[in-house]
Design goal:
It is built from 5 helices and 7 strands. It has 128 residues and is an alpha/beta fold. The strands form 2 sheets. It has a 5-stranded parallel beta sheet with strand order 2-1-3-6-7, with helices on both faces.
């Protein structure tokens, strides 16, 4: 896969999504943010992201369901990172792993500033 430059963030918590978007932009990524799953689908179609950062639990859906929908809109493979408070909860974690996400790309939401480097590493595939 080519270097990831375009990243779509999908999180219903606007402050988290916006701050993470700013931090990823500072790391050189082109970023778009969606706060709703339907907006994420439209942005994915237009923006064709190479990386996707998803919350797991959103109103009426999960990040796994959003991921499955977005994958149908993309022309290329995508790097997926889940950034969620459910990172260490067994059932959601299993669902995230079952959709092909690497264990090290499931990152627990604690502090966006502290977590951003780990998210960048996961997008770039730099962690084991």
């Amino acid at each position: 896969m080519a270097e990831v430059t375009r990243v779509l963030i999908v999180d219903d918590l606007m402050i988290t999504a916006d701050l993470l978007g700013e931090l990823l932009t500072e790391h050189g990524f082109q970023v778009r943010v969606a706060y709703r799953p339907d907006a994420a689908e439209m942005l994915a179609r237009q923006f064709q992201p190479q990386g996707l950062v998803l919350d797991y639990q959103m109103p009426g859906t999960t990040g796994v369901e959003v991921l499955n929908t977005i994958k149908r809109e993309l022309q290329e493979p995508i790097v997926v990172v889940f950034y969620t408070i459910y990172a260490n909860t067994p059932e959601p974690q299993k669902k995230m792993l079952d959709c092909g996400v690497r264990q090290n790309a499931i990152i627990s939401k604690v502090d966006v500033h502290e977590d951003a480097p780990r998210i960048v590493e996961a997008i770039n595939g730099e962690v084991d």
